């Protein structure tokens, strides 16, 4: 049931539905951001996609950087989701778009939290309580806005 809800939410997010930041379009940045605040743009998932969990996001400075980033994944659908979400993301001045694999397993993160201090950015997934076993791991990638 949770996987179905997560899939439905992801489809709505990618189709241009509202998100949890008060109805902004996906990828929209809030009008005002605290200096060290990390803003979640999207959580994207792919089954058996590979990757390696990290707390340090990779900056996606341009289209080429996005293309290089997605090459690490074995799932074409996840690659396409990341590329499309990065294209739609609105990055305000003083911010950069970044991505990180935040989880690989049976559970999809409900959200991602992060901090940025002294030029170092750290993100981590908030996972629901384990409720199921899976035959193939799900790779969860987050796109975030980080301070420039």
TrEMBL record:
Protein name: Lipoprotein
Source organism: Nocardioides soli
